[in-house]
Amino acid sequence: MWKAVLAGTAAAVISSSSLVFADQMCDRDGGSRWQPSAADIKAFTDARVAALKAGLELTAEQEKNWPAAEAAIRDMAKARADRMAARTNEQPPSDPVEALHQRAERLGTVATGLKKLADAEEPLYRSLDDAQKQRFEILTRVRFHRQMGSAGWQKPSEHGDD
To answer: What's the domain range around 130?
Structure first.
């Protein structure tokens, strides 16, 4: 139980500290938004994956379902980072219809990734006991909070954007 509490606390500290760090970087740069590097994104993804695994305290039988879930989490994080990097240098279209087409394309890509993530996490989640399921829900909420600008797994906005 202490491991789960420690993992949850670690996840909270990691996510909180990244927000503070990003805010400090904005202040230093005269208000420009801090953009995480590929190494930053990898490090924070590694930390989140490790926190989730440690918090779940998987049995040997449950461990068999972990590699697929971990790969899907990492794929989702990489896809998001790639989309955000591509949009960094992209000029928004002046044509509102083209903007809708681009948004629809992004949403389709995100939907496909979320489906893969759900499919990969389902066997793992189904194998968890009630206490592990509760920890899973708490620890995976971390990825749905706005963190580090574009680096974290984020909950889609109310407008359905990525």
So the answer is: 2-144
